[in-house]
Structure formats: structure tokens, C-alpha cells
Amino acid sequence: MFASTERERLATLWDDLIAGSCKVESWAYAEAEWSMVVSRRPKLGTRSSNGLRPRDVEILERALLSGVRKHVAMEVGLSCSSIAVIMQSCFQYMGLSCLPSRIPGLLVAAAHARHSQTTKSRLGSSPPPAPAFSQETIRVARPDADLYAWLAPAEHAVIHLLIEGMTYAEIAEARRTSVRTVANQVASGFRRLDVSGRAELLCLLARWGLKQPERPSRRPPSIVVPPARRGGSRGARHAESGNGVQHCPSPLSAS
């Protein structure tokens, strides 16, 4: 879980990005942490006429908190493409030049940290006055550190890279496999975690970092016939069953 100081820094980061008092310079992923470098300038401290509109901020926060863009589109009465344009505009205002599908997980965690705070703590989260120019590196522990316990090794490997913003093609090249294999492994991992995509997965991880809710139950391994029995005849398998060897029933036999 995120430490209390990490939660406060994340919530403050979100307020500053929305207000325009800081901009994202870069972000990185390490084995144990997510990090982001932000810059502060005095001229950015005052909201200008070309700042983010409250409506756009509301839509952006809804999208980052739910992780399912089409649900947000239905709630606000806009198309999914319009939601994507609004999100892209907000990200550019914050200093992010990436597509919404590649936004850093730390930004999603910041939106969730801001949303989870009470009104009183929000009002008291303003940072001290910044110097003429400064840079700050924000680091939090990776909330996806325990994913390996819920995923098969190949699923964990590809989803680990997907969280870091790599495309299927980039993951396939890194793992020296096909894009189709990567897509199948990602889809299988998503089913285990009960999420529909990267955005919803980042929301799940942000909630783990803040409140550590009940995590998805592990799915049982697929029933695989042992190699020694795979080529045997029906009569041989029947003889084995008569010798006290118990077999797992077929998933279709109960229907």
C-alpha cells in the first residue's frame, strides 16, 4: 500500500496539475516504484483564461476513476471519441504528450488519491510557495508488485510491460514472440483480474495502493490431461479407474 506521505503527495500533485502550477517533465518505471518528475514555475501558479474548464476536469476525473470510457460517455451524454479528445487536451495541459492508452500509472493513482481525501484534508494540502524554478521527483511503491500471485508467469510478464505503457507489438518484440500470443496472454490475465483493459487495470492498482480492497480470487488452473494418459485407449483408462485412480471430471460432465 502507499504510505500516508505518498498519498498526500499524490493528492497534492493532482491539485497542482489541474491548477497548472506544475507540469509533467518525465516519468519512469522501476522494479519497486513508479516515479514522475514535475517542474514548477511561478507563472503557472495562477489559473489563466486558457486553463482547464471545470467540465473537462470532471470528465477527466470520471474517466480515470472508473477506467471504462464508454460508461463515462453514457453518463455525460458524449461520444467515446469526444471523451478521448477531452482527455488528450487535459493531458497536454499537464505536460503529457502521450496517448490516453499510455498515461503513467502514477497519474491515475494521483487522481484516486485526490478523490479519496476528505474535504478537510483537501483544503490543507496546498504546498509551500515554490522558488523561481524547481523540479520535484515523486515516487511511490508499485501497487502491482503482488500481481504475480494472481497471474500465470507469461501473463504476469506481458501485463507488467503493458502497465508500463508498451504496445502489444513492443511487448512481442521484447519477448520475441508474436503479437497474437501477447494478445492472448493479456486477455487471459485480464480475465483473471476481472478487468477489461489497461485503464481499468490501473484503476484497480490505484485502489489497491490506497485501500487494499479484497483482491480478485485466483482462478483454478485449466484441467490438463497428464501426458502418460493422453495417448491411452478408453479401455486402458477404464482399467486405471478400476485400480483406484481418481480422475478429475470434465468441465462439461456436470452440465
Question: Which key terms come to mind for this protein?
Answer:
3 strands, 9% strand, 255 residues, three-stranded antiparallel beta sheet, mainly alpha, Arc Repressor Mutant, subunit A
Task: Write up this protein.
This protein has 255 residues and is mainly alpha-helical. It has two domains: 138 residues, no CATH class; 64 residues, Winged helix-like DNA-binding domain superfamily/Winged helix DNA-binding domain (Arc Repressor Mutant, subunit A, Orthogonal Bundle). Helix content is 51%, strand content 9%. The chain contains twelve helices and three strands. The longest helix has 16 residues. It is globular. The two termini are 42 Å apart. The C terminus is likely disordered.
Q: Approximately what portion of the residues adopt beta-strand conformation? A: 5-15%
Q: What structural class is derived from the secondary structure elements?
A: mainly alpha
CA-based gyration radius: 23 Å
Largest sheet: 3 strands, antiparallel
| Helix amount | 40-55%
> What sort of overall outline do the alpha carbons produce when their principal axes are compared?
globular
Number of separate domains: 2
In whole angstroms, how far apart are the ends? 42 Å
- The chain-level mean pLDDT equals 79
Major sheet: arrangement of strands:
1-2-3
Please report the total strand number as a whole number.
Answer: 3
Low-confidence stretches: 44-49, 119-126, 220-255
Q: Report the order of strands and helices.
A: HEEHHHHHEHHHHHH
Number of helices: 12
